[in-house]
TrEMBL record:
Matching Pfam families: Frag1
Name of the protein described by the UniProt record: CWH43-like N-terminal domain-containing protein
Keywords: Membrane, Transmembrane, Transmembrane helix
Domain CWH43-like N-terminal: 26-250
Transmembrane segments: 23-43, 77-99, 119-142, 154-176, 197-216, 236-259
Organism this protein belongs to: Salinihabitans flavidus
Length: 261
């Protein structure tokens, strides 16, 4: 066996264990499925609503929440969210299990293990809250259940933002782990995820600013602000999900190493 230089994409020549390869395949399939389904549905919901309600949409571009108020759009959306939300939590748990294996092999003396594991627990809790939020906002829809729908929306956006923030912090810590036989996650990808966490976080901050700004009246009118707000909403969700999808690189390498060995 040979060790690679720190940060190399090929972590090691050691063949992963069956359980490690199985976890990697689960991450690829579960997280990949969720990212694809949610991204497809959030954009399609708006497109379908605009096509079905052109007069309303011409006067006020629909948010995702408004699009879901149409039962023909909201009910299928709710079904797929009920399936996708727990899969995302389970996929994230599998990611953390792979990272935990790296911690056990290479973390001693390199990082504060108790601090990292405490953040793991927080990440799982935040992702679980976000999953509950997305199920709530999809099953409780406007106008009949607006308060519960909005509660679900707030839970999802706040908790998912917290998940990305905590994940970026963890990636910053884990990039310091040494390379060697048995290393599962990639140092370069941890560094890349640490940097890329800023994208969904900045978009979430912009979305919050636009959410507040749309309630004010501007001399030039509010149309541009509202359009920016509506357009930013799905982009924020996409950025958050794609951040988690970056683990496809690490897990893809694990699977390739397993089958090529």
């Amino acid at each position: 066996m040979t060790e690679t230089s720190p940060g190399s994409v090929q972590c090691a020549t050691a063949r992963p264990h069956v359980a490690e390869a199985g976890l990697a395949i689960w991450v690829l399939t579960s997280v990949g499925f969720v990212v694809a389904v949610i991204n497809l549905l959030i954009y399609r919901a708006r497109w379908d609503f605009i096509a079905a309600h052109p007069v309303y949409s011409a006067g006020q571009p629909p948010t995702i929440s408004r699009a879901l108020s149409d039962p023909a759009i909201g009910e299928p959306f709710a079904f797929w969210m009920l399936l996708a939300a727990p899969l995302l939590v389970l996929g994230l748990c599998a990611i953390l299990a792979l990272v935990e294996m790296d911690l056990r092999r290479f973390g001693a003396g390199q990082v504060n293990l108790a601090r990292v594991r405490a953040l793991f627990v927080l990440i799982v809790l935040l992702q679980t809250v976000a999953a509950v939020g997305i199920v709530m906002l999809s099953h409780y829809r406007m106008p009949e259940a607006t308060p519960r729908h909005m509660t679900g929306s707030y839970l999802f956006f706040i908790a998912q933002t917290g998940t990305v923030l905590a994940g970026g912090i963890v990636s910053g810590w884990l990039r310091a782990l040494p390379e060697g036989p048995g290393r599962l996650t990639l140092a370069r990808m941890h560094e890349f995820r640490r940097r890329m966490a800023a994208v969904p976080l900045l978009l979430a901050a912009l979305y919050l600013v636009l959410f507040v700004a749309k309630h004010f009246t501007f001399p030039v009118g509010n149309e541009a602000v509202y359009l920016a707000y509506v357009s930013t909403e799905p982009v924020v969700i996409t950025a958050m999900l794609l951040y988690l999808a970056l683990f496809a690189v690490d897990t893809g390498v694990i699977v390739l190493r397993y089958f090529r060995a």
